[in-house]
Specification:
Strand order of the largest sheet: 1-2-3
Radius of gyration: 26 Å
Structural class: alpha+beta
Strand content: 25-35%
Order of helices and strands: HEEEH
Length: about 120
């Protein structure tokens, strides 16, 4: 459809690129990592032979200089940090799409190397 109309395709790509740039401006705080919700089963001191779960406890895990770092969080921190992790995923996805679209725009707006003529069969 747009292959026959490179100008229309280029305009569509530029509009999408601009929309993605605007999306980046709306992002809140971003962090990498994940949130773990832990429940710890222990023997119930009031009922021998029964277990009791303690928690939930929240932990934020991430890599720092090749090492896994764990930080304990309060429930309200866990909620806020989880939102920042989702924002980071949006950032990663948006940047990947911007890069893909940028390549298409560059391919449409720059001249490549001319292809050589095919070799003739000399046998």
């Amino acid at each position: 459809m747009d292959r026959n109309r490179p100008a229309a395709r280029l305009a569509r790509l530029k509009r999408r690129h601009a929309a993605l740039q605007r999306r980046l401006l709306t992002l809140g705080p971003t962090i990498q990592g994940s949130i773990l919700r832990r429940l710890i089963p222990r023997e119930d001191p009031d009922r021998p032979g029964q277990t009791k779960e303690y928690g939930p406890y929240y932990q934020w895990t991430r890599k720092v200089q090749g090492h896994t770092v764990i930080q304990n969080l309060s429930p309200s921190q866990a909620k806020t940090y989880a939102r920042a992790i989702r924002e980071n995923q949006t950032l990663d996805n948006t940047l990947a799409e911007i890069r893909r679209i940028s390549l298409e725009i560059l391919e449409l707006t720059t001249q490549g190397v001319r292809k050589r003529a095919p070799r003739r069969n000399t046998t």
